[in-house]
Amino acid sequence: VARSGPWVVYEVADAPLVVGLANEPAVLDRSVGHVDEWLEQTEAWWNDPTQWDVHLAADGPEEWQRVDEIADAEGVPVDSVDVTNIEAGDSSISFDVSEVGTPVFVRTSYFPNWEVSGADGPWRISPNFMVVVPTDSHVELSYGRAPVELLGAGLSLLGVVGLVLLFRAGPLEERRPEPGAHTRSGGDVPVVVTEP
Prior knowledge:
Blueprint: E1 2-4, E2 7-9, E3 18-20, E4 26-28, H1 35-46, E5 56-57, E6 66-67, E7 83-88, E8 92-97, E9 104-106, E10 114-117, E11 119-125, E12 129-134, E13 138-143, H2 147-169, E14 181-186, E15 189-194
Parallel strand pairs: 4-5, 4-6
Antiparallel strand pairs: 1-2, 3-9, 7-8, 8-13, 9-12, 10-13, 11-12, 14-15
């Protein structure tokens, strides 16, 4: 559908943004706190198409199986679910499901700022997408701001307000000694001495 320098962009046919899963995801018991750790641990999954029936998850409900190795993941079938009315914007995704409680695969890159209503999650799922478990027939995902972003925005606003106040105050006047006065050093602070 497009070219940009050496890159060619394709649109994949019959690849909806949100779909049901055939099997329950398997939660990796190993630490996957940083995205580099996650990508390293799911690389073997990605390179072995025979494992693709069971997605790996960074976290999830307590009832999902926990595994240390990809080979330990078992296919635990889940109820089929119809996903309809999928709508996506720049920072939102919404859809309807026919079955509540069945995990749904969202083909959008995971990031901690994603928040969901009408479902539990979202959790990171291999290769680096999201999974949610609907608690309602209508689910909405929205991309919010992290606390550190809000703090940064607040500090920036304070900085701008401070600059405006400094500009409005005008330049500071320099105090000059009176004629006949001279200064001598008194440690770190100059001392003005006036002759009688």
